[in-house]
């Protein structure tokens, strides 16, 4: 039902607003998220790629909506076990966030932790450890020792060890 409503909404927006309009892209991204949640990863991937390409062209690769679309595609790659492709996209997103938001921004730290998880999944323990240590140090410096983000970063590092 939800999927049908999203598809109808997307079709109407494409017709009225055009393919490049943000409302159309948002509808497309929502359908991709529904596909992702329903384990329809190939369909989700196709939509996320389309949204990323259009957003990069229309609003730029540094725009938060473009970076969110990249994160959705990364989740799709994770579900498909395509770790190298996830890693490449995570590196792009992390470097962009470092440049635009700075290293200590919560979104940058999330990107760093995501990349570290990908490294860990690939058995790249040293690379994962180095990123998890960075994330944990920044969380300890910026947040309380018992803050959930600090504790999560500590747990990620511990499970890497």
UniProtKB/TrEMBL annotation:
<dbReference type="Pfam" id="PF13424">
    <property type="entry name" value="TPR_12"/>
</dbReference>
<dbReference type="InterPro" id="IPR011990">
    <property type="entry name" value="TPR-like_helical_dom_sf"/>
</dbReference>
<protein>
    <recommendedName>
        <fullName>TPR-like protein</fullName>
    </recommendedName>
</protein>
<dbReference type="Pfam" id="PF13374">
    <property type="entry name" value="TPR_10"/>
</dbReference>
<dbReference type="InterPro" id="IPR053137">
    <property type="entry name" value="NLR-like"/>
</dbReference>
């Amino acid at each position: 039902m939800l999927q049908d409503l999203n598809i109808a909404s997307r079709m109407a927006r494409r017709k009225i607003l055009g393919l490049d309009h943000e409302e159309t892209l948002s509808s497309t991204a929502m359908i991709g998220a529904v596909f992702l949640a329903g384990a329809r990863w190939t369909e989700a991937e196709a939509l996320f790629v389309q949204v990323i390409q259009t957003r990069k062209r229309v609003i730029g690769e540094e725009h938060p909506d473009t970076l969110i679309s990249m994160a959705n595609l990364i989740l799709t790659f994770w579900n498909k076990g395509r770790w190298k492709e996830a890693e490449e996209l995570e590196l792009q997103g992390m470097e962009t966030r470092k440049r635009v938001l700075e290293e200590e921004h919560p979104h940058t730290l999330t990107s760093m932790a995501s990349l570290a998880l990908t490294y860990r999944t690939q058995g790249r323990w040293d690379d994962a450890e180095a990123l998890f240590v960075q994330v944990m140090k920044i969380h300890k410096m910026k947040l309380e020792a018992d803050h959930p983000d600090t504790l999560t970063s500590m747990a990620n590092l511990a499970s890497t060890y």
